[in-house]
Amino acid sequence: MFAMDICHIPYRFSVTPFESSHVRRNFCLPRSQTTPFCPRIPVASNSLSETNSSEPKSRNRMFVLGMGFVGQFFSQALKNQGWAVSGTCTSIMKKKQLEEKGFDIYLFDANQPEQSTIDVMKYHTHLVVSIPPVVGIGDPHEELLRSTLMDGNLQWLGYLSSTSVYGDCGGAWVDEDYPASPTSELANLRLVAEKRWLNLGDDLGLSAQVFRLGGIYGPGRSAVDTIIKQGALSESQKMRVSKQYTSRIHVEDISQALKASIHAPSHGKVYNIVDDDPAPREEVFAYARDLVEKKWPGQIKQSTNESESFIKKGSPRGAKRVSNARMKKELGVRLLHPNYGSGLQSIINHMEHHETYPSSLP
Prior knowledge:
Blueprint: E1 61-65, H1 69-80, E2 84-89, H2 92-100, E3 104-107, H3 115-121, E4 126-129, H4 141-149, E5 156-162, E6 173-174, H5 185-204, E7 207-213, E8 215-217, H6 223-229, H7 235-240, E9 248-250, H8 251-263, E10 270-273, H9 281-295, E11 321-322, H10 325-331, H11 340-350, H12 356-360
Parallel strand pairs: 1-2, 1-4, 2-3, 4-5, 5-7, 6-11, 7-10, 8-9
Helix pairs in contact: 1-8, 6-9, 9-11
């Protein structure tokens, strides 16, 4: 549904809603095509609060390299559990906003790195890298941090990647053992970065793992929010519209998957972090539009180009359905939002307490 984006600046969605003869999915029923990789398995709790309560809370110190949408949500979840959380951003304004939320924030630019900021990282026990590579440059952070972390206290490292590394798989189900075949420079750079961070974990002798995230959505960043704001499609989103399937994941489930990995660390493992229901983008937006119209009848205007937004010529691009079986089996994750219906309903339910949305509708 949405492009993977985990950089410092929160991603902005802009997709034009459309009218269709959409019949709302019954999410109590499975899709006709189900994954052979995803059996339902009883799972144990993965809460970090179940770790040894006699240990001082200050023992757990997380550093988030890149406090974007995912980084902030995850950081807040850890902070609520007593963790000390620090991180980086690239603007003074955002630094101030994050500090007001109780985080220790450092301005950081890989092109002009401050050694003092790099030195701070070695005093943390856990590190999440949430900055994507840059086309034409790659990911310089692993090289920048290597020598410092060699002499640090790091125990666990998580690198946030993307399911885009699999490329176009012709609609097939893919798991973590499926050969990656990136079809874009950015996806190829992500794959290279994955290997470098895992190699660093090997060299440091610590638990390092890669999380391949599907399209990220959550409160303030979803199909519901896009329809309410009535933005226009960006060029990259126009390209993604033609995908037959898109695997996505709610930010709450990303957070619980990361926490589960900390609770049950692995060595050099790759995990797909996606929900159970890889669905066409147009289906998701039709469902979201139904939710908005039901909540605020007659408040959404129809754009003259809406019906054309999801009409694309040629074969579907980047078609694949991503399995989350390893995440469920090895990390014991029970998804809070196993499909887009659950996730979007939760988002719009939360909007009942925020009057800014109805009043902002045209």
